[in-house]
Amino acid sequence: MGAGISRRGFLRAGAAAGVALNVSFLAPPAGARLIETLPRPGPDWLTPAGRPRYRLDAIAKVTGAKTFARDYRAADLPGWPREQSHAFLLHATQADRSFEGIDLTVLGEALKPDRIVLHEDLVADGITVPHPDFFGDVFLVPKGETPRLLGQPVALLIYRDFARYDAAKRKVRFDDSVVRYGAATPYNQPPHYGASRYVRIDGGSPEAEDRYSPFKDSVIFGKFSGDKAVWPSPGEGDAMARGMAAAAQIEQDIAAAGSDALVLKRSYFSQSIDASAMEADNGNVWYDAATGVLHVMAASQSPYEVAEVSAELVSTSKFPLKEVDLKVGYTVGYGTKDHYIFPLFCVLAGLYGEGRPVRLANDRFEQFQTGLKRHAFWMDNTLVVDRGTGKFRIMTGHFRTDGGGRANYSFSVAFVGATAAQSIYYLPQSDFSAAAFASRAVEAGSTRGYGTLQSMSATEMMVDEAAELLGIDPIELRLRNVFRSGMKNTQGAIPAGALRNEEILLKARAHPLWSERAQKKKTFEAANPGKKYGVGYGHVQKDYGTGAEAALASLEFDPRGRISFRHVAHEMGPGVTTSQAIMVGEILGRVPDETEYGVVRWPQMPLETTDEPYTLSQDEEDRRKQNPRWTPRITSPMSATNSVYYLGHATREAARILVDLALWPAARSLWSRGTGGGALAPYDVRREDLRLGGGMINAGGMPPLAFEAVAAEAHRLGLPTGVTVHTFNRWQWTEAEFDVPERGRLRLSIDALALRYGEGAPEEHKRSMTTGGWHFIERAAVSYPPAQRNNAGVTYYAPMATLAEVSVDIGSGTVTLLSHHSILECGRQVVPELVSGQIQGGIAMGIGHALKEYLPLYEDGPGDGTWNWNRYELPRAKDVALWSQTAEVLPPLSDSDPPKGIAEVVMIAVVPAIANAVTHAIGKRFHDLPITPEKIREALS
């Protein structure tokens, strides 16, 4: 969505101006383990039923052996020099004066850096910022110019030894004399980042064709006149003009609403926060001028982009470059390590390291000063409700968000927030707009929630207030307006599958926290003078995915039945290495014996891409897909809650194809042995009767077969014993047709396929395995979802509701969370314990957003370099009702339900639930987050 970084052919040599790209995962230093590659880290890992007792990486985690990128130095990296240089950045803390240079007098001769890098050095050496519309136009502030944003680096200081580096860094911290400023100037922020609008008027019912919608017609895009978003003129011209006419009609309908309608207008604010991932941004880079190889070690959610953009950065400079060798380590970033500029600063440090590796690593002050932030949102909402029926007639929301001084994903975050604002409600008429503004604030980017926490929290607070004004129970009002299966969202698209929000609402209404809240309030307040009791409800549904999700997965087994599994997914904390292995076991009846994650070398998949899944015209995409090796995207970063459903789709498809092409025919062959067709002949046994589990294969009353025996038979017959697939989703799965030897044409939910044949394969099949030892089958036809589907904004949702029980001390204003109960619907759980962990961690983050976390945007904010956890308050165990929290997950409708991505939705519902609970407690409504003791005392004064 929005501005993107191309992944143009990262698998191909010469992808970036003739530069080879080599991406791999760190090998652990002695005594440490980066990832547990064996599927059974202990003999007790799996239950007899094949379920995991703990995460695959659990032993390494709890013993402290699991390493992160931050744990590595040059001496730990094979082939790197043992010498290690260190670097730090000096930052501008004023954005209204020109930068006039640095003064390092405070360091004296003893702590003088071995190398100082300024903007002018970069210019002299031909270094420019790749993708300046995303990362900004300059790395370091040019002398005589005003910084683009608070905290922008002005100089890079490199030291050849740690002791002097550490002493110097401590010496200059908080010293205002080091960075020199000139005359006062206007702010120097970049142009604003974008504006979009989603207008829909239904055709009189949810089923009728819309009069206007983004999906049927067009998203509306705006421009800027100063600090004001300007939209196209309404009229009968193009689709956007007709959309603005629809928007004007909605405004007229709001103005004409009579006494039979409640017209509620409110403004809301959601603050900037720091995601506070425990691993601060870091990297280590060695530029070997003799070989022209740039060795990079970095923590990233999107390693392929880091490698490619690093190549672009260096290949246009004076530094010769033949190869980028990127080593990636475990990290957790909550989105903040996806498409971020810090690795490029690490590359700069390495280029000026004079042949030595240079480590650049933020401490926590620097992380607050420069790390990506969650966007602040200002939201002006209007809700029109029929007083007689309680049905919503119209909702509008006009949002603006502050993206800071680099574009990053601000425009995308803004419009995702707008498309999510309807939350769980059906809206006959809606008009949601979002404008992403540039400012001198610290850069905001991809952060957990991605605009939806901000917009849906406001919607839920507004619905509660509407219920109060109408005298309707808040859950009853929600039930009257709930979004049901088959209805259209505010973009005019019908979401995937069954929507079960009504079921959740009924469960919440019956829960004792809700049904007994009035009596509990009386009892609690009588027993606790000076404290007020309240219960609040929040209910949201969050999209998952980006509209351009792609993945690669490979499964094969040897004649002994040992299963090998390879996947592009890498661990970001949610347990992907465990869940993907379990998915394999669910289909093959056995988890893999060997696993490899974060795989980037796929010689069996010679795919080509321009990586323009959002911007390529439909005509051009239709032309390109005639090439059977072209795909809109090779693979996705680990983001957007994409692992279990999207990346898991590749896993599931590879396993299913392996069953169809190898295990089923091999099992039939074994059952058919003997006179008259063996045990199989008398029975009518079909593919749908096949059952795999516990290492055994059975179907329709046949004798159980050991997986090993079936694997040996598949190899003897020369069947496909290895399958590699590539998948692509644009709010709908791509399907393609393949001419598979011995099977004919198959239509599969993938767009690329490679097979490896068993040992007994005929020579012609063996001769076909010429692509990395595999037979790459060029597809005969492909059906990519049209680019127009991106106007849907989203078609995949996961819902969650939370009941929050609070007490409010009316003297101090302190809110205490007494308990909370959540209800989640996530399709079929792959590993329930991982789902539980996501719920608990996400709720803790939401509690912080609701009650504690806050960053000022400008001069008194983190850009001044003085912020740390001594000033920034995070929730602790005592704040999250650790021992009184409960949750339930709706059972799947069937055992064939797909799993849903839930890593983001789990943090959102608790935010409005707490806000609504505080209102129930003290009778005051809050529209600005966080709800602090100071705000409560002021409201009660």
Automatic annotation (TrEMBL):
Domain of life where this protein originates: Bacteria
Residue numbers spanned by region Disordered: 608-634
The Aldehyde oxidase/xanthine dehydrogenase first molybdopterin binding domain, residue ranges: 253-482
Name under which the protein is recorded: Xanthine dehydrogenase family protein molybdopterin-binding subunit
Domain Aldehyde oxidase/xanthine dehydrogenase second molybdopterin binding, first and last residues per copy: 508-592, 776-880
GO MF annotation terms: iron ion binding; oxidoreductase activity
